[in-house]
Amino acid sequence: METIKINNDNVKIILSKQLYEKSAVFSAMYKLTGRCIAQISPLGEYDVEVTLSPQTGSGYSVEDIKGLAESFLNDIIDQQLRLDLEKQYGRLRELIVEHAFTPIKNLDQRLNDI
Amino acid sequence: MMQKPKAYTIFPFSFSRTSNNEYLLVNEVGEFLFLNDEEFHAFVNQRLDKKSNVFLDLKGKHFATDTDVAPIVDLLATKYRTKKAFLRNFTVLHMVVITARCNHRCRYCHASSESEDALGWDMALDVARKVVDTIFQSPSPTIKIEFQGGEPLLNWKAVREIVLYSEKLNKKMKKSLEFVICTNLTLVDREKLAFIKEHGILISTSLDGPRDLHDKNRVLRIGKSSYALFIDKLNLTRSVLGHENVSALMTTSVESLTRMRDVIDEYIRLGFNGMFLRALNPFGYAKKDITTYSCDDFIKAYKEALSYILQVNQEGTYFEEYYTSLLLTRILTPYCTGFMDLQSPSGAGICGAIYDRNGDVYPSDEGRMLAKMGDRRFKLGNVMRDSYLKIFGGDVLRELTKSSCVETMPGCVSCVYRSYCGADPVRNYVESGHIIGNRPQSFFCSKNIAIFDYLFQLLRKNNENVINVFWSWITKKPLLDLKHVELPRESS
Fold first, then answer.
1. Beta carbons of B339 and B326 less than 8 angstroms apart
2. Structural domain ending residue among the three candidates B362, B377, B392
């Protein structure tokens, strides 16, 4: 579960490490670069805290940052889902690309190994 | 606890939420589907009824299968290879900067040209021949030599030399050989046109719109209107070469943004059957100008222009927007398309290369411009000193190619449009100081995402009149010719 806290000069989001992998958090944060300052820090054993604050001269208010935080929360779900799906079919993707350029003779066997 | 067996196998795909609270799914080979929220989550969680229409659609487009996996992998691999066919032949397009001199001083010129009477800015004939020797070592069975400048006609003897020497070499090499001269046309005369016609050379020229707009952007160095001269020479060129051998490109200056209808009307009035809506690149004189409009400004103008172009087509005039047409071909067909600025890996160097007047070779014109501004990091080599293998097999091109696969680049890797898109590492370098770039702050990326978003909105609406125009562009057939053809439709 995640919680969101709106302060005077920033928005803080607490994310559970059990739900979201580091890679998903970073991918969602990457999209915010240039629009706000995004910081991440560990919070105890099971959580991380993401702090979003306006960049100097960006013209963004904390209210705007709240909007970005809401997009971030949606995006992080999608990013985690991408990682979960990648675990299912990532090897298939590699096989498709390999087979496209260097046809695999024992394709059935390679598929069985996945 | 034993894991429950999967109901079906899911194949790789990218996805994104759309503004309609749906999901757009695109697979590795560019096939796409829209699913609503419930369908999407049922699909990814293996809860979809295998007899449902949704599952059958997903299966039909190779997002999933409940039968043997190997034949689908085989099929997807074949389609993937087809989509990446541009990799097969290596460099096809060879752009030759025949001179840096120009009789224009266009306000957005990224070539930062020299004056018409400047000395020492032309390609020498021995360099020109060496350029051709290098070009003909490309393994590609198709070679396209494009003369650029400056104004290429100011160094006509080098143009002639390259054409004649290429044809001589090609008697032995037997490649498919094509020439294009990118010219402002103002220096063409009957003698040059006779040579151009004899050798089947195509003409690509520049037209920015009606007289006032064209004259504002494209200024003759002597200060006179370039428009009147352009029209005279366009008519002369067409009378000798035929209408179809002359095409034109426009560049979107800040003034053009609000004048798109006028620009389109001018193109149609002059008998062109399409235009390419191009934003400015941040090089040369344009670097100053591009800061005057944002990506949002360009996209607003693009949408208005496209809407008007669609209307013009529906009223019976075939008129294509070439960039839209290119993207639609990638979205709606299994085929590979050219366009080195939007390939993955980047087409810079491996699809096209540019030879400067002194024989220096660059992967793109932007790389050459950077060198002119003092940064030579993209120089691949020099035809007078370096072998073909050193130029095209060296570290610079290897680094560019391996760093420009959208399949692995940050931001691109999770982008739903990845299968249709590409990277421009030189542009990234200019924008961010690094060839990987920063997607959230990239004009290039924002522009392409906004265009894809808009095109997918139109495809989702599935308006018959709009879709028919799209297919007429893809098939290069007027709308009336498609009247009785059954066109493929995206299922709703």
1. yes
2. B392
Chain centroid, CA B267 distance in Å: 20
Asked if the Cβ–Cβ distance from B414 to A27 is below 8 Å, we say yes
* Domain that residue B41 falls in: 9-83
**Any domain includes B425:** no
Tell me the C-alpha distance between B3 and A9, whole Å.
47
What pLDDT, in 10s, does the model give residues B37-57?
999 999 999 999 999 999 999
Are B166 and B247 in the same domain?
yes
**Is position B454 within any domain?**
no
User: Are B84 and B336 contacting, i.e. CB atoms less than 8 angstroms apart?
Assistant: yes
B132 and B103 housed in the same domain: yes
Least confident of B8-22, B210-224, B333-347: B210-224
In terms of domains, do B200 and B251 share one?
Answer: yes
Q: What's the full length of chain A, in residues? A: 114
Q: For residue A57, what are the contacts with CB-CB under 8 A and spacing of at least 6?
A: none
> What DSSP element (H or E) covers B443?
helix B443-461
Q: How far is B394 from chain A (nearest CA, A)?
A: 22
Read off the tokens for A32: 């915010």
Q: Shortest CA distance to B293 belongs to which of B255, B334, B265, B332?
A: B255
Task: Check A96 against B414: CB less than 8 A apart.
Answer: no
From B13, B74, B440, residue closest to A31, measured CB to CB: B440
| Interface ipTM above 0.90 | yes
Structural domains in chain B (count): 2
